[in-house]
Each structure stands twice: as structure tokens, then as C-alpha cells.
Amino acid sequence: MKHIQFFKSVFLLVLFFAAVPLLSQAQDGWNWGDEPQKAKEKYTLLSDDVKAGNFDRAKQPLAWLLAKTPDLNKSLYMKGADIYEGLVKAAEDGEQKSIYEDSALVMYDLRIKYFQDEANVLNRKGGLAMTYLQDRPEKYPELFELYTKIVELNGNDSFYYNVNYAMYLAGVMLKSERFTEEEIIALHEKLTKIVDTNIAKDDDFKQYWEKAKEYIDSEFSAGVTMDCEKINKFLMPKLAEDPDNVEMIEQVLAQMLKAKCLDDPKFLELATKLAEAKPSFGRFAFLYKYYLGKGDNTRAIEYIKKAEGYAESASDKADLYMLMAGIYRSQGDKSTARSYYQKAASTDASKTSEAYTGIGDLYMGSSSQCTNSNPVLARAVFIAAYNAYNRAGNGAKAAQAQQYFPRREDAFNHGGAGTTVNVGCWIGETVTIPALENLPK
Fold first, then answer.
1. C-alpha span between 317 and 35 (Å, rounded)
2. Residues 6+ apart with CB under 8 A from 6
3. d(CA 18, CA 273)
4. Same-domain pairing of 333 and 391
5. CA proximity to 354, closest of 312, 315, 399
């Protein structure tokens, strides 16, 4: 108990000097006070004890220096924090440990008092405060103020764990009705901007920021159920104040997607605006899929062509060509559809089978269009389809096309067996009529 009382006395002494009005401005160098020789001796003892890990013994010179030379140098408070953090780790008694924890945190506050640099020091204090005070619920309002201030002062330079703590405590405050939904929505916006900015740096901390994004989104979703009504009530007015804010547009769209507000006219408007402001394959892909789903092929083609320029791989680009082929095929433009099927196959060999099966289907569906008074030439279209299916490796469809080859009797009567002919019409390909004995009866 004597030890605990002593530590309480030290802690109260620290608090007393924290409350004393600042008598002189901190200088860049060292301010050794009225007893410089003794102060230097005490600081030497303090430094040696900290270096040796003798934190309990280091309390004595620390207490003297805090009382006599509070504006000595910022390193005094850095070493003071080291001392109490070391004592926290070694403490076994709960009450004593709490005193050490509070003392460690006060070191950061005193450093700010005498040497400013508030944003940086609070950012560092945040790494300890939640760890030390998480089991003291009565401290949560104070902690919440700390972490919101850290975020406010540091912005994108906030440490990722402080962002997490700010979001967690906002949820706690919301549950205790000390924070409103509108306030937590605004905080989530602010934290998301910080997280996204740091993820975009793509440095060694990216993985931690990505986890932070998952965490703050999870905590936010647990506290607030965003629906279309809330989005329109809380987010849209803010966006209206700054309609070209791309980051805000991204956040609103993310919330609209989660809340399934896809039928809201604002959703398409914002998705289009974002794609034009920050073009990417994924954003244009969303738009062409949207218009495909609505049956608006003209707009779908417009965005497929835009997506092509941002395709990240040959496979992506080939997929776009397959889509284009399908749209033109549905519109009856067989020639353009074939052109896109061929582009897909030449762009990505893995699309060859699907593309040439599509071409074969186009040819099979053109028998009524590619007519000829000569029954042998009239069936040449099926040979073209057969060749396309063979190139696709589609044996089943090739066999189906072969059933419609020119009849042996027709070839005998009209000639042409074993010759090369042009199919004509839109196809314009040359094919070889099989020898008479290879034709079906």
C-alpha cells in the first residue's frame, strides 16, 4: 500500500505541474532551470536508468526534473513515457497498474503543454490510450474525444489504429445515445477518406489500411443500417453542396450499392459521373451491364467501347468483343457480329471455341438469306457453318451442319462436286464442295 500511495503522490505531483501556468516558452535547446548542475546530474541518472531498464529507480530523478525543470526538453517526457510504459508491463497489482497507465498518458499531455506538436504527440498517445483504458468504460467519452481530435488534427497522417479506435468508440457512443446517426455517418465519411487515401499510397502499410477499411465498415454497419431514405436524408444534401467531389460520390455510391438503391435515378447519375471523372474498366463495365439489363443496346455499346480502352487483360478485352458480337447479332447485323467474334478469338485464344461457334450459328441462320437457284450453291452456306464449327472444335454442331450439305443427286445433276465456290450474300467466303462420293444421299 505504501508503494501505491507513493505512486499516487508522484502522479498528483505530475498533475499539479500540468496545471501550473506556463512561465516561459519552450526553447529549441535545453532549459536546465535554476540548478543546472543538479538538473544535469538528475537527467544523467534518469537516462542511465531508462537505458538499463531500471524503471522503478528512474522514477526518483524523473519526479525531481518534472518539478524543477518541466520545460527542460521534450526528451524528458519521452523518457517519462518510456518509464511508465515499462512499469505498466511489469505491474501485477491492478490499482498500481492503473496509476502507471495514467502517468504514462500524462507524459504525452505534458509534452504537448511545454513543447506543442499536438497532432503528432496525440497520434502517438492514441497507440496507448485505448489499450490502457479499454477496461474502464467510464473513460470512454474522454477516449472518444481524444480519438476524434487525433483524426481532426492529423487527417491522412492519422495512424491506422487510431482510425479504428475512433470508429469503435463512435459505435459505443451511439449505443449510449451520446452520438447521433447523422454524426456517425459524417465520421464514417471522414475516416473512409483517410483510409482510401492511405490505401492509394500502396506502401508497406497498405495491408493495415485495407484491414482498417474492413473494420470501420463493419463497425459502421453494426451501428447504422443505411437504407435509401437515410442516404437521401444524410448523404445527398452534403453531396449537393459539393457535387463534383469524386471521393464523396464514391462513398455515396458504395452506400447505395449496400442498401440496394439501384432503382434510384440518382444512382445511375452518380455512377455515370464517377466513370467519366475516374474512368476505369470496372466502372464502365458496370454501366454497360446496367444498360444491357435494361435492353438499351445503344448505350451498352457506348460504354463497352469506353471500357475497351481500360481493359486490364486480353481476356477482359475479348469478353467485351464477345458482348459486342452478341448485341449486333441480336440486332440482326450479322456481318458486324462476325467481325467482333473474330476479334475476340484473335485477342484471346481461349475464346476461339465460343467465338467460332457463334460464327457457325450465324451461318446456319442465314440459309434463307443466302439463296441460289442452284441447289448445290444454295447449300454452300452449311459448309461454311461446318468449317466454323470445326475451327471451334465443336463436333456436335459440325455434324449437325453436315446433315444439310448439298445432296449427292443435286451435285450429280447440277455439278459442282469437288469445286471451290463463293457462298455469296453477306458471308462472302469461299468453300469447297465435297467430292460426289462424300456428299449425303
1. 77
2. none
3. 53
4. no
5. 315
In a domain, 314, yes or no: yes
Residue closest to 160 by CA, chosen among 108, 117, 107, 197:
197
305-333 burial string, b = 16+ CB within 10 Å, else e?
ebbeebbeeeebbbbbbbbbbbbbbeeee
Q: Whole-angstrom Cα distance, residue 306 to residue 276?
A: 10
Task: Assess contact for 327 and 297: CB atoms under 8 A.
Answer: yes
Evaluate whether residue 330 is within a structural domain: yes
CATH of the domain at 342: 1.25.40.10
Q: Which residue has the cell 475451327?
A: 391
| Domain membership flag for residue 125 | no
Residue carrying C-alpha cell 464517377? 274
Q: What long-range pairs does 171-180 form, CB within 8 A, spacing at least 24? A: 171/219, 171/220, 171/222, 171/223, 172/140, 172/144, 173/140, 173/141, 173/144, 174/223, 174/224, 175/223, 178/141, 179/144
Domains contained in the chain, number: 2
Q: How many distinct helices (H) and strands (E) make up the chain?
A: 23, 2
Task: Give the number of C-alpha atoms closer than 13 A to the C-alpha of residue 332, restricted to the C-beta side.
Answer: 1
User: What pLDDT tens digit does each residue of the chain (441 aa) get?
Assistant: 333 333 344 444 444 444 443 333 344 489 999 999 999 999 999 999 999 999 999 999 999 999 999 999 999 999 999 999 999 999 988 899 999 999 999 999 999 999 999 999 999 999 999 999 999 999 999 999 999 999 999 999 999 999 999 999 999 999 888 888 889 999 999 999 999 999 999 899 999 999 999 999 889 888 888 889 988 888 898 889 889 988 889 989 988 998 899 889 999 999 999 999 999 999 999 999 999 998 999 999 999 999 999 998 999 999 999 999 999 999 999 999 999 999 999 999 999 999 999 999 999 999 999 888 898 888 999 999 999 999 999 999 999 999 999 998 887 888 888 899 999 999 999 999 999 888 888
Q: Is residue 415 part of a domain?
A: yes
Query: Is residue 388 classed exposed, middle or buried when 0-12, 13-18 and 19+ CB atoms within 10 A define those classes?
Result: buried
Host domain of residue 391: 370-441
Domain check: are 376 and 436 in the same one?
yes
Q: Is residue 261 helix, strand or coil?
A: coil
